[in-house]
Write a structure and sequence with these properties.
single chain; alpha/beta; Quinone Oxidoreductase, Chain A, domain 1; Rossmann fold; seven-stranded mixed beta sheet; six-stranded parallel beta sheet; 12 helices; 28% helix
């Protein structure tokens, strides 16, 4: 193992990332570079996915400027090989192929003790709060490691993090036998279409403004896909919302999976939701939004579930089972694979909308 490593680093108060070829090895509890502490593992990263969060950091938008510390190694979706394990680690070994849950709980609280560790109050995220995976080596707590079965290829294993977001959202709403609207079919929205199909949704509708993504949504299982701009200029329930109602006996969909976070999409999605329906919200608005709670939730008797991350470890179990059963077609979502050195091209493709999911080959 070399004394230094390569890494994509957010080191300037400006858009972009820097490619550091002389980065020190990760330091764990031992305080020694490359040496894991008793309950840690050192991983050689082989593949990493670029996420929408990474694009926010690249653009250096308002959220990123407030959240991301300068000097951090970015990235949080990966697969790799264990290089060394700490003295107290059991069940893991050097040479084992693994990925990891990127949300790290530092100390137990009520949420983490009652099955909601993904929203623990002191949770930190790799690539956001501490060094991430756009690098040759990564130090992780052993309790966060998820071994990857041989049947799952690297390009799939590298994006289990966002796939878990989709699985969590779909399963939180309960889609089997129900009519489902996926609002926003970016990477995770497309995965949600595929997962909803695999879990037995009766009918799936997708809405977005990108024709290419809408076509992919159809290929992944959407029965109908609509242009989100097809609306009533006066704000009434016309356009695609009315078309969905006509296709659901006038009721609207049983389930709304809101993946975009856009205020107009939230409003239209709840218009399309039937009375007594369920909404699972993963999309994150960039700022506070004005919302008609009375019409959309209270008088509609809607159930609304906020979703973030992945349930530890329920989501991981369900996700792996879906992958091993051959229920998911992730190759329609992974549009590009390229070496780490081509990171600038990868982000440019995302900026232009030419890439959906990019997987970087690292080692």
């Amino acid at each position: 193992m070399a004394a230094v490593m390569r890494a994509l680093v957010k080191d300037k108060d400006a858009p972009g990332l820097s490619f550091d070829t002389n980065r020190h090895l990760p330091v764990g509890a031992t305080g020694e570079p490359g040496a894991p502490g008793p309950e840690e593992v050192l991983i050689r990263v082989t593949h990493a996915g670029i996420c929408g969060t990474d694009k926010h950091i690249w653009d250096w938008d308002e959220w990123s400027r407030k959240r991301i510390p300068l000097g951090i190694v970015t990235g949080h979706e990966f697969v790799g090989v264990i290089m060394a394990v700490g003295d107290s680690v059991t069940g893991l070994r050097a040479g084992q192929r693994v990925t990891a849950e990127g949300h790290i709980v530092r100390s137990p609280d009520t949420a983490s003790r009652t099955g909601d560790a993904h929203v623990a109050r002191d949770m930190v995220v790799i690539g956001v709060d501490r060094d991430g995976c756009f690098t040759d080596y990564l130090m992780m707590p052993a309790r966060n490691i998820w071994p990857v079965p041989d049947e799952i290829p690297d390009r799939y294993a590298a994006i289990m993090d966002p796939l878990g977001n989709a699985v969590h959202t779909v399963m939180a709403a309960g889609v089997s036998g129900r009519t489902v609207l996926v609002s926003g079919v970016g990477t995770i929205g497309l995965m949600a279409v595929n997962v909803a199909k695999a879990l037995g949704a009766h009918a799936i509708f997708a809405v977005d403004i990108d024709d290419r993504k809408l076509n992919i949504a159809r290929e992944l299982g959407a029965d109908e896909a609509f242009d989100a701009r097809d609306i009533d200029p006066g704000g009434g329930p016309a356009g695609w919302v009315e078309r969905i109602r006509r296709m659901t006996d006038g009721d609207g969909v049983d389930v709304l999976l809101e993946m975009s976070g856009f205020p107009s999409a939230l409003d239209a999605g709840f218009q399309a939701l039937r009375n007594g329906g369920t909404a699972a919200l993963l999309g994150t608005p960039s700022k506070p939004v004005q919302f008609d709670f009375a019409s959309h939730i209270i008088f509609k008797g809607a159930t609304v579930k906020g979703v973030t991350g992945r349930r530890m470890w329920e989501t991981w179990i369900h996700m792996e089972r879906l992958m091993l059963a051959g229920k998911l077609d992730l190759d329609k979502v992974i549009t590009h694979e390229m070496p780490l050195e081509d990171y600038a091209k990868a982000f440019d493709l995302m900026e232009k909308g030419e890439a959906i999911k990019v997987v970087l080959r690292i080692g």
